[in-house]
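We close this part of the discussion by returning to an individual protein. The sequence in question and its structure tokens are set out directly beneath this paragraph:
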Amino acid sequence: MIAKDKQKHFIYGVAISLIISIFTTPLIGFIFTSLIGVGKELIWDKWLDKGNPEILDALFTIAGALLSSLFIQIL
């Protein structure tokens, strides 16, 4: 079973990427969302010490962004 936190990262990755891709392109949506996921882990969680930085959190965000970008590209 996938942890709730990882599920949230995946869902947010999908949602953010979909919204950005609607107004730009799927590639830009993927890149921007990936940067948000990595930035959240580095800046918010690590540097500002507001959470627990985990590489898997960033990877689940990126996976969600990839899924939605591929979905839009296929449509």
Summary: Residues 4-74 form one domain. The first helix runs from residue 4 to 23.
